[in-house]
Amino acid sequence: MKIKVYPTSELQSKAAAQIIADQIRTKPDTAVCLATGDSPFGTYRELVRMVKDSHIDCSRLRVFGLDEWVGIPPDNTGSCHHYLHENFIGPLGIGHDQVHLFDGLSKDLSGECSRMTEAIRHAGGIDIMIVGIGMNGHIGFNEPGVDVNLWAHAIELDEITKTVGQKYFQSATPLSKGITQGFQQVFAARTLMLLAHGKKKASIIHQTAEAPIGIAIPSTLLRQHKNSLIMLDEEAAGELAPSLRN
Ligand code: F6R
To answer: Under a CB-based contact definition with an 8 Å cutoff, are residues 120 and 98 in contact?
Structure first.
């Protein structure tokens, strides 16, 4: 696991967007798996700018969602579906047939998970997976205690996730389950990029880098990934041992 620290979140976003843009330029049919939320917001905005300015061809890009809230309709502004359409798929003009997102309203969640895992297998695996980190160390909705042997799966959400998740919704929204790519998919991603900024992430980033590796803090498992890169701003890196920064 490599850790890179940038002076500001703007510079962190630009650097992350540059890596994704270069990846798409090198391999136009790249398969990306995308988190939503505050962490990748600036990166997606920068990427859209780079794609437009440099005329990068996204017509063969394959887009996979990292996760979704179960029971939340796609047109709810708090849904991962809505976020990705607003901030990535729409602005980049990605076609419907290039996109695979979880259906949080599916009556057959296990069928939905199999459909997703099969679509990724068919695409030849994920080239680059962009994730954020929850205050409890979750990756996607792989909550503390998760079974690391799972591919896509539905999961009961941790209390912290239900509480913190309210920030995405316009009014109080009962959240109970999520549907997510599992750790098998995380480990299989050829590149794994974790983005975090702001002081409130400093403690969990410190634990990710230094706590014992295990499911109590799922993000610690990224230390076992063959090609993982953590991109931070100074604030999120604030509790890291100096020897871990570069
Ligand atoms: C969202 C997701 C979550 C978030 C995490 C951090 O698709 O996968 O794991 O990345 O909860 O959220 P933010 O970035 O809003 O702090």
So the answer is: no
Measured between alpha carbons, how far is residue 173 from residues 33, 69, 99, 157, 224 in Å? Answer: 26, 11, 26, 13, 35
- Closest protein CA for atom 2 of ligand 1: 140
Catalytic pick among 67, 112, 127, 158: 67
What are the distances in angstroms from CA 115 to CA 101, 193, 204, 246? 10, 24, 32, 40
Residue 125 token pair: 């695996």
Summarised one tens digit per residue, pLDDT across range 29-84 is 999 999 999 999 999 999 999 999 999 999 999 999 999 999 999 999 999 999 99
Distance between CA atoms of residues 183 and 138, nearest Å: 11
Q: In whole angstroms, how far apart are CA 47 and each of 111, 159, 215? A: 33, 33, 32
CA dihedral (106, 108, 109, 115) in degrees, to 10, reads -90
Arithmetic mean of pLDDT over the chain: 98
- Residue at token pair 């630009």: 14
Whole-number Å distance, alpha carbon 151 to ligand 1 midpoint, is 18
Q: How high is the pLDDT of residue 199?
A: 98
* 36 Cα: distance to centroid of ligand 1 (angstroms): 6
pLDDT in tens, 84-104: 999 999 999 999 999 999 999
Alpha-carbon gap, residue 72 to 170, rounded angstroms: 13
Positive/negative CA dihedral, 145, 168, 79, 35: negative
